[in-house]
Design brief:
This protein has 284 residues and is of the alpha+beta class. It folds into two domains: 8-213, no CATH class; 224-284, no CATH class. The chain contains eight helices and eight strands. The strands form three sheets. Strands 7-6-5-8 form a four-stranded mixed sheet. Helix 2 (57-66) packs across helix 5. The radius of gyration is 22 Å and the shape is globular. The protein starts with 7 loop residues before the first helix and ends with a helix.
Length: 284
């Protein structure tokens, strides 16, 4: 189908192919996750609820194995986990799974479609050990949404999406199809029919990497200190300004030197701020 040129975002979303058709003739339908979004109503930007399609992580992983035959050799998977342990990777040394868990990666990014103001945020899945010649051939879309509709305050739009993705990751880790969704509600009959059955070939998976550009991590982790913000350092109070704490003051007598801290200090300060927020919000 050919669309009138000029609306790149529309063309993008019309060409995203969901659901996935598998060889069993079942449809791996995306789950409709309820999220708040911005919508223009009577000339005012208003926060309303809608649903957005999100592919289930465990279903996509099963699809990649059964339909696309992306199955890393067992010895390669074992070597991967052993290599991480040999390198003293804390995640691998305290990994609650087994060396048979197949690693996968979640990747988030923001892209521009034609108009610089026309941005889309996407979250992708890839198999960590699958290295195609072209990177984009190994990235599989889980979710995407136009940035102008997203409520970024308190991560309102992305939080339910991330909760759903985490749930799917945990299902894949256990390797057994669930009965209830990420929020404890019974799944639709079509999905519930597989409840209690093992994933294809008895495989289990583990999210081993979280990737994304700086802007994506800043948004998801809600970082305050960033290269483009006034507070530009995690471990001191240096500022991107011409004031007393300007970062480009060098030497041992620079005012920001006295504010330096370490990881423990950073965590303690963050925890104190969290406790203050909890008291303010009256959260028990």
């Amino acid at each position: 189908m050919v669309y009138k040129p000029g609306n790149y975002a529309r063309d993008f979303f019309k060409n995203v192919k969901v659901p996935l058709v598998s060889g069993t003739q079942d449809l791996n339908d995306p789950t409709n996750v309820t999220v708040p979004v911005y919508r223009m109503i009577n000339g005012q930007l208003t926060e309303v609820e809608t649903t957005v399609p999100v592919l289930d992580v465990h279903e996509l992983l099963d699809y990649l194995r059964t339909e696309l035959k992306l199955a890393p050799p067992t010895e390669v998977v074992h070597k991967y986990w052993q290599h991480l342990r040999d390198c003293d990777m804390p995640h691998a040394k305290h990994f609650p799974g087994t060396d048979d868990h197949i690693p996968f990666t979640l990747y988030g990014d923001e892209c521009v479609l034609g108009d610089p103001k026309d941005k889309v945020t996407g979250i992708f899945l890839s198999l960590t050990l699958f290295k195609p010649k072209t990177i984009r051939e190994g990235q599989f879309l889980l979710f995407c949404m136009q940035d102008e509709h997203m409520v970024h305050d308190e991560l309102k739009t992305l939080r339910p999406v991330l909760q759903h993705l985490v749930w799917g990751c945990n299902v894949a880790f256990n390797g057994v199809y669930p009965e209830n969704d990420a929020f404890g509600r019974p799944l639709p009959l079509k999905k519930r029919r597989w409840a209690g059955t093992m994933m294809a070939d008895g495989c289990r998976y583990a999210c081993a990497e979280l990737r994304g550009d700086w802007k994506y991590h800043e948004r998801i982790l809600r970082l305050r200190a960033t290269p483009v913000s006034r507070e530009c350092c995690f471990f001191c109070d240096a500022e991107a300004s011409d004031g007393n704490l300007r970062y480009y003051s060098i030497g041992d007598e620079a005012p920001w030197v006295a504010t330096e801290t370490n990881t423990a200090g950073l965590i303690n300060r963050a925890f104190e701020e969290f406790k203050a927020w909890r008291r303010q919000q009256k959260v028990q």
